[in-house]
Design goal:
214 residues; alpha+beta; Helix Hairpins; 4 helices; elongated
C-alpha cells in the first residue's frame, strides 16, 4: 500500500478506533449510535452525536463494529423546507380538487339539481338577513328616540335653564350605538356569506359541465 493511501487513512482510523473501543467496552446495555458524515471539504468525521454546524448533513449510522447499518437525513435547510411546503401545498390542492370533483359527480345528476340547491341555500340566507334588517331598523329607531329625548337635557341642550340629563340615558344611547354596530357587522357577514355561496355554486356549475362534457 502506498504511503499516500496510508496517510489518508490514518486520521480516519485515529478518529474511529477510539469510538469503537469505547462502545465495545461499555457493552450492549450502554450501546449508542455512532455516526459518520462528510463535511463541506470532503473530510470524513465520526462521532456519537452530530455537531450543530453539521446538522444539515446526511449521515451514516454505524454499529459497534463500524459497519454502516442505516442512513439518516440531515436537517432541512430553509430552502429545502420552503420547497417541501410548496410541494405539499400543490399536492393538497390537487387532492382537494379531485375530492370536489368526485363529490359533484356523486351528488348531482344534472345542472338543474345544483341550481335548485343554490336557490334553497340562498333563500335561507335571505330570510336570515330579513330578520337582521328588521332588528337593525328597531335598534336605529330606539337610538333616534333616545337621542331626541336627550336633546331636551344638558349638555346636549345648551340653554341656561336646560335640566340635567337623566341618569342612565347617556349609557342607553351608547349601548344602542354599540348594538347597532354589532348588528351591522352581522348583517355584512351574511351579505359576504351570500356572495361567497353564489360564487361557489357558479364554480360548481362550471366544473360540473366540464366533467360531464356539457
Amino acid at each position: 500500500m502506498s504511503p499516500e493511501v496510508n496517510a489518508m487513512k490514518t486520521p480516519v482510523l485515529r478518529t474511529l478506533v477510539p469510538l469503537l473501543l469505547l462502545a465495545l467496552a461499555a457493552g450492549p446495555a450502554a450501546a449508542q449510535k455512532l455516526y459518520r458524515w462528510v463535511d463541506e471539504n470532503g473530510q470524513v468525521h465520526y462521532g456519537d452525536r452530530i455537531p450543530p454546524q453539521y446538522a444539515d448533513q446526511d449521515r451514516d449510522v454505524l454499529n459497534q463494529r463500524g459497519v454502516a447499518v442505516g442512513r439518516e437525513e440531515g436537517a432541512e435547510t430553509p430552502e429545502e423546507a420552503r420547497a417541501r411546503m410548496e410541494q405539499e401545498k400543490a399536492a393538497k390542492a390537487i387532492e382537494e380538487r379531485a375530492q370536489r370533483d368526485r363529490m359533484l359527480l356523486q351528488t348531482y345528476q344534472n345542472v338543474d339539481e345544483i341550481e335548485m340547491l343554490r336557490e334553497r341555500r340562498i333563500d335561507l340566507i335571505d330570510s336570515q338577513m330579513i330578520i337582521q334588517e328588521q332588528s337593525l331598523k328597531t335598534l336605529r329607531q330606539r337610538h333616534a328616540d333616545q337621542v331626541a329625548r336627550a336633546q331636551r337635557f344638558a349638555p346636549r341642550n345648551t340653554a341656561a335653564d336646560a335640566p340635567p340629563m337623566p341618569e342612565g340615558l347617556a349609557e342607553d344611547i351608547a349601548r344602542s350605538e354599540s348594538d347597532i354596530q354589532t348588528q351591522e357587522r352581522n348583517l355584512q357577514k351574511k351579505r359576504d356569506e351570500r356572495a361567497a355561496l353564489n360564487a361557489q355554486f357558479d364554480t360548481d356549475v362550471r366544473r360540473f359541465k366540464e366533467l360531464r362534457g356539457l
